[in-house]
Amino acid sequence: MTTTGVPSATPAAVTGLPELAQARKTHPITVWAILGVVFLAIEGYALAAWFISGDAHRTPAGTTPIPEWMKVAMMAFQIVGVIGFVGFLTYFVIRPLRREHRLTQDSLFCLVFWTLFWHDTLTNYLVHYTTYNAGFFNLGSWDRHILGWSSPHGNLVIEPTIFVCTAYMWVVFGGVLLGNVVMRRARQRWPQISALQLVLVTFAFFALFDLIVEGSFMRLGFWTYAGAIRSVTLFAGHYYQFPLYEPLLFGATWTGFACLRFFRNDKGESAVERGSHELRVHAKTRTVLRFLALAGAANVIFIATYDVPINLIAIHGDAWPADITSRSYLTDGLCGSGTTYACPAPSIPFPHGDSDHVAPNQTLVLEGGR
Fold it and tell me: Which sequence spans correspond to the domains of the chain?
């Protein structure tokens, strides 16, 4: 008696299915690398447009004399910044290239965190909230060339070119390294600690760390949170007023960065680099993809934990205190005396670009002579 049935799949066909599925698999690193390209393109366009447009020129300090001790402090930290930048670049990037002829993961982290300096004044995206001391070497900023920028005179918003653009390597990445030391010691001290508990310990450390570091810099007059909400601000009414939500927000940002570097799989890959070892590409291409993926993740962390919440807070800020508006080197020509713009306050409508706006004497300025 003969039986017939549906022919079974051939061994070759069955064997081929995993390879086909693998070929069509999208690795996390691919998605994050695409995001990295997008953010770096936005940054690159803003910087290029800044120079091409002629906006790259110094924002003057105005008529108010800058105290000599502030000048000395600013000069000292700009020198320290250059030394720190060169030291980190040499140790984490140049040395591995010479010894191993490749960029290590820390080389990539070091370079990625340096590229984040374009976020520094995004606090002013919707309304002017933060200002830097015009005594720093500066060329204004690229802000008004950032996609969707809203507040007026973004080119006058000071970005201390030497101080801040170097600090994102030696201060921000240095903070990440310090945070990872805290994470390792916490695991040694409490072997059963969960990942969530470890993150909370790291956040507590960074909140305190930011409070000390930023608080010290602000007392030196390096920058101000002019539009801080006074009810939750230390030293409210002074040029060094410090909102308590600042260390919480940037503490969360620093925690995100530290977790990105700390948590790795058995291949040594961070969460956004997963799958890099499976890519059939040249080693240099893989390194580029890893850099782009880390850049994409770092930008997302910055936007989600700091840029978005601080801008939502800034639109609810209180009036700039007289201790700031009376110092032209802290108002940067954005508002107050010598300008046609009243400094931000709850009673002042937010100006946008070249919109009509309220002058310091509370009269309405009609743009275009309307």
Answer: 26-324
